[in-house]
């Protein structure tokens, strides 16, 4: 009883105090005397900022002011009433049910993909329009017009382009395809060339630590590729390409929407080079004789109403390359170590045959009632087989990989506080044979991650992630990663990040260009778990500042980046002795810092200009002392002009594109102990590399393009050291610091309906 | 017959109103015209305790919210929105609040959708 008294007093007291300034009461339903009040009805003063909703019993209390005299009471399914009220009082009002609904709950359509606008991470998105600027030909070559990534030749034989970010080569990047790790392990050297350019819808490049969601392996950054989707890609697409060095490519896409929910796409890529090209007349092929067939089938399931999205992919690849001396014939000249020379002619050559099978399944579920909450599951299996030999050396690797990731996205409180959490399981089985030495191993890991992000749509956003993994070779370890963005003023954006990365270096797969030399391969440690070496472990720190501006009425932006990668342990690849290549654990310091300034500006309508300057300081403590990373240009300059004429109604227009890369001198690996004829200078000379392309779009269905690479015709005069005696002690194809191919023109077409 | 329909409707309303939903979805009109308005409206809505999600659509002027009914109600969200200068069907912004928005967002003078220009 006493309890009720207290409640009664507590309820009445505020009424007594505030009764002078409030209108209070209860809203009930007309003609239904026995019901309690209507809960959730709107009670508000007309044209005011004052409104309340009735409580669970239908009661309300709204402040009264003299300026207001019309109180509106409205409720879904009832007729609204307007009461004239001139003084604070208590009212009881009944609402009449209405047949009309005046506030309809609209079912909201969701975007298939939602992307954060103000990302705390330093992400550059390369869309398909940008990808068309450099028409050739695969993922490795897609970065030519982007200053975030440097593209270099990896060796004098395979024509393979290797990418770098922040001064570190691609093994230190996590390269994913639709967020599934892709170019890793056995596919590290050539993996990027196994994704045809036309399959790529967009590329996201993250500088620095990146997210923890896709694993612990990324050290200097992440590159994610989104492939074209059966539902959104054109029904038929055909692209043909040919260049004067005898490389031909054909790409076809066929996409079909089967039902409301199911679509499928078949993507076929083939490329071929049969012509033997030896422009520099050193007796060695400038680019391999090559043959690739690459087939992918995708299935897409989408049910927006129920919130399901799913992708199923199958891909098969066969790639064959022949490298070496021009007159090398693999059938007669291959030197078999067991049986001796087949012909004894001493012709040097090699072959790299790769077969790869990939399959992956992605399942995504967005809670239909809670658009901010979703579950994602992805699983992938790949089998990569490379059989190869380089002169006397043979290298065979089979890599079987399973990757599974389960991800849950939701919010804490509201959408300004989001989180992602999940589990990862990965298996890698390597069967690796270097000459006759077996380096087979199995890697297994399981991990859990949690990533929190804060976004208040204004000044600050941040992402803080942590993952814990247990790996049979790397041990149990934590990977923290943190990103923050701050907007100090309009159009300015300051970003900072730090994070850790850890990985097992696949020393042979990643450095297989070294097989095509007479260098002796040495591993100097034996206690570690990976080839006797310790896992690589590094921290990355970075700051970046972006400022958008308007100059002479046109938009532009300027970006400053500074990143440091500090290795706790690194597998040092030391080729400072021309007779050897040795791998050993870092003893001392290894630090890479990079500075970049980039300006993007629209010079004239439809004339875009992009320029960048980059400075790298990547120094490692070798056995012979601290040295800059070999073959690295410390200073780089980049410029790109893109011009488009106004598109006509049918889409017809001209597009012009020009790119300049200016590379400073590069430190060359020490060759001073070689005979004088096989010695190189300490540094290479700087050079300029230019590409240009013209595209004529005839209509939305058809376009032609032609272009030139290496327009300034810079060529390295001696890409093959000791080429006069390829089985001799001074043979080396790895010291490549300038283009091997001279000026080259190409042309192609695209047809789509 | 009519009473049956009515009682079914009433049952439905009773369910909706008396179960205080943790994730109540609601959509209502908010006046505005551009991406700047969108940011302002969504921020104001998310600033109300109990609002979990807010998405304002430029062409339809509809604000979709998901809220915890135990902590807030539609009128509280509308109060927060009019306070930053955007009119709703029930509540209207004060002259001062309305004039505090960026000149390009003055939807009362010119209510065309120019989301693409901003």
UniProtKB/TrEMBL annotation, chain A:
Signal peptide: none annotated. One of its GO terms (biological process) is siderophore transmembrane transport. It comes from the Bacteria. It is found in: Cell outer membrane. The keyword Transmembrane applies. Pfam families: CarbopepD_reg_2, Plug, TonB_dep_Rec_b-barrel. It is a multi-pass membrane protein. PROSITE patterns: TONB_DEPENDENT_REC_3. Residues 289-711 form the TonB-dependent receptor-like beta-barrel domain. The keyword Transport applies. InterPro entries: Beta-barrel_TonB, Beta-barrel_TonB_sf, CarboxyPept-like_regulatory, Plug_dom, Plug_dom_sf, TonB-dep_rcpt-like. This is Outer membrane receptor proteins, mostly Fe transport. Residues 119-221 form the TonB-dependent receptor plug domain. GO terms for cellular component: cell outer membrane. Keywords: Cell outer membrane, Membrane, Receptor, Signal, TonB box, Transmembrane, Transmembrane beta strand, Transport. One of its GO terms (molecular function) is siderophore uptake transmembrane transporter activity. Belongs to the TonB-dependent receptor family.
Automatic annotation (TrEMBL), chain B:
Residues 23-89 form the HMA domain. Pfam families: HMA (PF00403). One of its GO terms (molecular function) is metal ion binding. Gene3D superfamilies: 3.30.70.100. Keywords: Signal. The keyword Ubl conjugation does not apply. The keyword Signal applies. Residues 1-19 form the signal peptide. It comes from the Bacteria. This is Copper chaperone CopZ. It comes from Kriegella aquimaris.
